[in-house]
Write a structure and sequence with these properties.
Blueprint (H helix, E strand, L loop, with lengths): L3 E2 L3 E4 L11 E7 L5 E5 L9 E3 L5 E3 L6 E10 L4 E9 L3 E2 L5 E13 L8 E8 L3 H5 L4 E8 L2 E9 L7 E5 L3 E12 L9 E12 L4 E2 H20 L7 E6 L4 E5 L11 H5 L5 H4 L3 H9 L3 H12 L8 H17 L9 H12 L5 H13 L5 H12 L1 H6 L3 H17 L11 H22 L4 H11 L3 H10 L5
Antiparallel strand pairs: 1-3, 2-3, 2-7, 3-4, 4-10, 5-6, 7-8, 8-10, 9-10, 10-19, 11-16, 11-17, 11-18, 12-13, 14-15, 15-16, 18-19
Length: about 475
């Protein structure tokens, strides 16, 4: 979200802020990627309990944990109601010479024209995500230029709001997801000396029935749908705008430091999205349904993969470990992780117990056999690469060498063991291997969304998504003569 400085307001711990005699003046600011900061220049909003003592006066007990409160309320000079949530402060400060002052920080904010409760029941959410317009690819206006002797002699522009109808992505018993096309015109009253027109998109999530509480709706629907869009786009930037409408018809803007890569998508990112709307429009409903129904393994794998799209400044070993964990989670989804059945395991345990081995060896063998019931991570990785078929071969032509490198380095970095000389990849090779792991994880998630392997390969080739990563991976894992 963009930086913003809000209008000065009076603040209170009471929801009836305009009637509170203890209200105090404060300035609220938001940097976009940090918690909101409320500065009380003269006074105290959140203070330590005052304990009266005999003879008058009071004492206060300060703690290192500081002070916290679920929410504070504000009313601005412009008539907006502020609701700052998850508020904390180290305590009041003192300016000398001067008076008490205080700085508080909140994790999220509602701004509305009517008072809100901290966790309202919402009817709908409107969300704007960087890249959504380009992902949709719809241009709801027409421009024609007529040339005469290599000079433009006529420029015509037409826009019809009826051509900008909402596009439904998904609908179920609980929600409906639409993309709305927005028109932005600048230049002042018509006629004018300048004219500027731009289109944008926003996603609307409408909740059916009695709606859902805001916190639940964010975790269950909003974040997961935004994650799906990030997966389809191939990059993740923070939500740039979010607004709600409550079940009572109150509209409010929401501000919070959402996670995502800094800045805006580059031209290359916008031009190389792997799963654009036009490519998946016929399947998008079932893809979203599958995304929402992911088991814990796939949900964690997808969350890790999209998180890695945000360009974290991480050491190479941590970057590799995060990628390997996403790959391993995908390999465990919807498969039988057991090496043998419970019946066969019991038969083998019984055979050991009835053998003539010493009791010490029997105890050791039974303990080991119980833990040997599960398939090792290397076997699951091999099975997943096998299911990925031609896509795995496209990314890593020598899949056997890739799997061997992955097993060795996954075990070494997970358990912090030293690598045997001759098996260790250089930093450059490990980076290329990590990229291959991310690409295969991407393919595994796409496969679980209902995409055919041939379509996934064609998608990567046509879009040229991460083509440089694929080039390095194919070069490193080329089949040797």
């Amino acid at each position: 979200m963009d930086k913003r400085e809000f209008a000065a307001a009076i603040w209170s711990l009471s929801s009836d802020v305009t009637e509170d005699p203890n209200e105090t003046l404060g300035i609220l600011t938001f940097e976009g990627d940090q918690p909101l900061e409320l500065e009380i220049p003269a006074g105290v909003l959140l203070d330590w309990p005052k304990i009266p003592i005999e003879g008058g006066g009071y004492v206060q007990s300060h703690t290192a944990e500081g002070l916290q409160v679920d929410q504070v309320y504000g009313f601005s000079q412009r008539g907006d109601y502020y609701l700052l949530r998850d508020v904390s402060t180290p305590g009041p400060g003192m300016s000398c010479p001067g008076m008490e002052r205080q700085t508080l920080r909140g994790m999220s904010l509602f701004v509305s024209r009517e008072a809100l409760i901290p966790n309202p029941v919402v009817r709908s959410m409107k969300i704007r995500v960087p890249g959504l317009r380009e992902w949709l690819g719809t241009i709801p206006f027409k421009i024609s230029v007529r040339y005469n002797e290599n000079r433009s002699s006529n420029i015509s522009f037409s826009y019809d709001a009826e051509d900008a109808d909402p596009i439904t992505l998904f609908e179920s018993d609980n929600i409906k997801i639409d993309i709305n096309l927005l028109s932005i015109r600048k230049g002042g009253p018509i006629p004018t000396l300048s004219f500027y027109f731009e289109t944008d998109c926003e996603m609307t999530i409408s909740f059916k029935g009695d709606g859902f509480e805001f916190n639940y709706a964010m975790e269950t629907w909003a974040h997961r749908i935004v994650g799906f869009l990030a997966f389809c786009m191939g990059f993740k930037y923070p939500i740039k705008a979010l607004s709600i409408e409550t079940i009572d018809g109150i509209k409010a803007d929401y501000y919070a430091p959402f996670v995502g890569a800094p800045g805006v998508p580059t031209s290359l990112q916008l031009q190389s999205m792997p799963f654009t709307y036009s490519r998946i429009s016929e399947k998008i409903g079932s893809m979203i349904q599958s995304w929402l129904e992911f088991d814990d393994y796939l949900r964690n794998s997808a969350a890790l993969l999209t998180s890695l799209m945000t360009k974290w400044s991480m050491p190479l070993d941590m970057l590799f470990l995060a990628s390997a964990q996403a790959f391993e989670a995908a390999s465990r989804s919807r498969v039988d992780e057991c090496e043998i059945s419970d019946e066969k395991l019991e038969d083998r345990l019984r055979a050991i117990k009835e053998s003539e081995l010493s009791s010490r060896i029997k105890h050791w063998a039974c303990y080991k056999l119980k833990h040997a019931k599960w398939k090792p991570a290397s076997r699951l990785a091999e099975d997943l690469v096998g299911r990925l078929g031609d896509f795995a071969i496209y990314v890593t032509p020598d899949t056997e060498r890739f799997l061997n490198d992955h097993r060795v380095h996954r075990n070494a970095y997970t358990h912090r063991r030293s690598l045997i000389k001759g098996e260790s990849l250089s930093n450059k090779e490990l980076y290329c291997h990590m990229e291959a792991v991310q690409l295969l994880t991407y393919g595994a998630i796409a496969m679980n969304l209902g995409q055919d392997i041939a379509d996934i390969v064609a998608c990567f080739k046509d879009s040229r998504y991460r083509w440089n990563s694929i080039y390095r991976s194919r070069k490193q894992y080329a089949v040797r003569p």
